[in-house]
Amino acid sequence: MRHVDVLIIGGGPAGISAAIWCKRLGIDCLLLEEQSQLGGQLFNIFNEIVDYPGMRTKNGIEMQREMVKHFVEMDCLYEVNTKVLFIDERSKTVKVKKQAKKQEICYTYLILATGSSQRKLGVSGEQQMIDRGEVYSASADGERLKGKTVAIIGGGDRAFEGAHLLSSKAKEVYLIHRSTRFKAREQYVERVISNPGIKVMTDTEVTAIHGNRHVTSIDLESKNKEYKNLLVDAVLIRLGVAPNVDLIKGKVATAQNGLIVTDDVHQSSNPFIYAIGDACTTPLFSSISSSAGQGTIVAKHISSLLTES
Amino acid sequence: MRHVDVLIIGGGPAGISAAIWCKRLGIDCLLLEEQSQLGGQLFNIFNEIVDYPGMRTKNGIEMQREMVKHFVEMDCLYEVNTKVLFIDERSKTVKVKKQAKKQEICYTYLILATGSSQRKLGVSGEQQMIDRGEVYSASADGERLKGKTVAIIGGGDRAFEGAHLLSSKAKEVYLIHRSTRFKAREQYVERVISNPGIKVMTDTEVTAIHGNRHVTSIDLESKNKEYKNLLVDAVLIRLGVAPNVDLIKGKVATAQNGLIVTDDVHQSSNPFIYAIGDACTTPLFSSISSSAGQGTIVAKHISSLLTES
Fold it and tell me: CATH topology for A120-237?
């Protein structure tokens, strides 16, 4: 069975940083990425990146290119299209699948850099909409959504900010939330509620998204069981993010919000398993630079453990 | 009196990152730097920087240029040549001096990004040597030290690594340490002790460095009061680093190693004073990327406090 001193799951900024540092410190390390390219959530950043000190890029893809170039130039070992199916923390082994081929890899230390994902509604038509590429950024897609009827689903900052941004571009904006309580900051809520261009619908859930080539309408169900079909051209789902921790559930301690609990060197409750990046960082503090910083700390810490032993 | 929401002391990577993030988050922020240029310890990195994900630079100065360019393009407010003389944490005011001009600045939150400094011997001739630019990197200055007699002072990893690196280049290498116990890793010590090209002198202190235009010799005093003058061409002082915390001593909690104690959002024992970078980070975990990451966290945290209030 293949053995590595450090196995990293996830090739976003946190995992890339950990791998670069492992290489730099002479640690035998392998990074696994499920997608066909490294970069993780960098692919979802459509705006200019101005907050990674020393480097400004037009968008996430440009940052991804620079990070991957660095990673490859450092000769870091990695596998893409490789899905981790199972972590056996007792035998310190992971089962992975690359296309049809399955294999097992044994580790001394495991670093979870699995990131987070946008929460989904889980309703019919949603995945088809995403697969068709009908995924919008409120700040970057104002032109694409000009004159359209747009539904934004959620009750947090991003939902309210999105509604506000699009109200000057779109024909109609609906903000739909399943409760009457909003998580968003008060000033965001006030700005939206006082905006006559935005219709706020509370106590309302989206039960289906319709449309074959593009979204045409959504089904709504109110708390008191009223049903309605609303004609819309675009749906922006803004339900917040959830850490990708399914693989490790029950095997390390997680907080109520799902985040993996780690100490100051990013060790989890299992001393051979570490977590970095959005899998253990509250969305408020999530950033490329803090992810990169965490990758550094964890590699340096593991290096000191490997040297001692 | 001038007031800012966030006052940052220190313009190395940690301070630069905090300032960029403050700007990004719309926080009224001012950064003060004692030296004539921003960059802090970046000026002491003579090797290629390969461990800041996404950006590789030939040396610290190239990294400094990129970071300062970013900082300036973001229109971050700063003052160079500005020394903080005193922090009055009760009135939340600092006294600063720029050339002859003194002023007071009032803050809501203070971020200490004062970094760390190489420990010095504190003997005559040492500062003159440093002022003449006789400061060497064992890894980068092999050619400059070729055929010379070199004394390395210290008992830690960097002293032993330096002795090992230079033993193949220099004519003679002395490793001089005031005790018989070494802090360096065992394998580093073994490699040096078994190297016939390196003379290890223990229980020995350096009491003076001589030379007018360049170093010519050093005075040594052994534990049993034997005195000796040793002819050398270069002295590398490798006594480790100490955090720059004089300004804040007694005002916030510090650990035994001098580091400012902070929590996970980098708040010190005073809720209005934060610390980031080498002022609060053990040298083992010190890096540009972790400093940048810490600057991000602290700015995001303070932003959430300012928004709540």
Answer: FAD/NAD(P)-binding domain (3.50.50)
